[in-house]
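Lecture notes, structural biology module. Today: joint structure prediction for complexes of two components.
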Amino acid sequence: MTTDDGAVRYAEKMRRVMDAVELRRPDRVPTAFQASFWLARYGGITNRQLMYDYDKACEITRRALLEFDPDLFYPIHVTTLGPVCEAAGFKQIQWPGHGVGDNQPFQYIDREYMTADEYDDFLFDPTGFYLNSYLPRIAEAFEGIEELPKFAGLYYHQLLGNLRGFASPGAVRSLAALQRVAEEAQKLAKHRVEFNQEMAGLGFPVSHAVGTNAPFDYLGDFFRGAKGILTDMRRRPDKLLQAMDKAGVLLLRHALAGAKASGNNFVFIPIHWAADSFMSQQQFATFWWPQFRKLLMGLIENDLIPVCLWESVCTNRLEVIGDIPAGKAIYWFERTDLLKAREVLGSKLVCLRGNVSPSLMTTGTPKEVDDDCRKLIETVGRDGGFILDCAFGVPDETPLENVRALYQSVHKYQ
Amino acid sequence: MEDNEKRLVDLVADMDEEEALALAKEMLDGGTDPLQVLDLCRQAMDLVGKRFESGEYFLPELILAGEMLDQIGAMAKPLLNESPDAPSNKLGRVLIGTVQGDLHDIGKNIVTFMLDINGFEVKDIGIDVPVATFVEEIKAFKPQVVCLSGFLTLAFDTMKQTVEAIEAAGLREGLKIQIGGGQIDETIRAYTGADGFGLNAVDAVNFSRKHIVGA
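The predicted structure, tokenised, for the full assembly:
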């Protein structure tokens, strides 16, 4: 294939995807490919090898893209985080080779990383809270960083004198460790950028460069833990609301800066806490949606395209989450029925993505996968505005023939 | 006194944590039988469970109810001469755990709580539970229902292996197995050979009720 062929293919794929996003009918239904640890199975290596070997991960992903020919592919940086996690002594996940078996996926550890009485610290000075309390809790490399001077409030002679904090044993140790982490992170980033460029040259657009989270999910998953945030909704709703307002600003700033630096307009947002069964409609309308909508609108107003992965079943939320401008986002539903979503949201509001179930992908036959894809293409995809994908990426245990069936289906059905 | 009793039930059921704890303390300090206080909590939990089942309450209320129960329990239990919740008063035994390879416990904990407040004797054997441990625990605890929990797709196979091992150990007769978790559906129920699957804690309670109480 020549460079020109790659450029033509890239433009074709992007046009197909953007036709779907902007609710036109593309030449065929586009596909997206997120395979995480399934790639290890496909490449005949362990999850642990995939997690640690950048070159191998790139080689396997390249082979998969050439075989399945998706229109968007998920970047490789999440399942190759092993060396960076190792260098950081990261405590928020257990990964293959570190806490879970060599052939298991990494798993997040739900825990209270910020206590209830630390809301005020977070609200007053988030950066100070990160340095003094949060970071040393989530990674060993940060242990000691709290010995750095507390800059805010220092000035003139006091500022100079307090710089001695940089020579305290904990800070010295932490700064040296962080430099090692940074070198590994640079190495990973370099691989990622080079790989994405190479794939673009072959005609494959990457699905996004940055991700973000809903303010509720950010605080719930990464700070308060499930039990913490659920009780906060009852015990300290005002603090939670204030913290989400603050977090929303920070999350938007990072997403805008990251997207701008990468030149990729898609922003991936996995959504964990919007499910019908987690909170009431009233709680959703108070604690979840307004803060998230603000983030969405901030992205959209800056010409970015939010790719929202609504996990679990969100059928009761459809009317509320339909309050966005038309043709500006992708709603990827995990277990929400896509036909129902189309019915409630209409065909002129938002591009839908998904959602061949993990049970079908892992235990069904290629014919059954083909039938399901055909149904989705001919119903949900009938008028455009649809991207075919699994419910939440290709499950790790999926037989190869079923993956082939999914990606071939868009060439067979209209 | 009767006013206080009704008030305690309402305060707990209505999620007024501060007032509920204060009243429970006042009653215990005033000499109310601690077993009586725990029984009032149980009545309140019954209301919480019903409100959850009817869609009025959701996870925030279940978790907070659990917290109130724990705190009042911690005040009352040191004053007791006899053990509360004698197993003989329970509807039946349910064993629950997250299957091998999976470390998720939020769903499992919520199901455990709902089964508990609905009158079942529940034994929670934790996360990442090896197949052989399920078999040993079933032999020892003799549950009528086993709940296998799992959030990841890898759980499909470990649930299947667990069901097969229970069967191979000759423990399946008279025992009903339910699976549950974010990715579980009827296809996976059939794949694993379980008797039922649940999408939420209410399904789990109904399944146990059906197979133990017959209602």
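Point to remember: The beta strands of chain B are 93-98, 121-124, 145-149, 176-180, 196-198.
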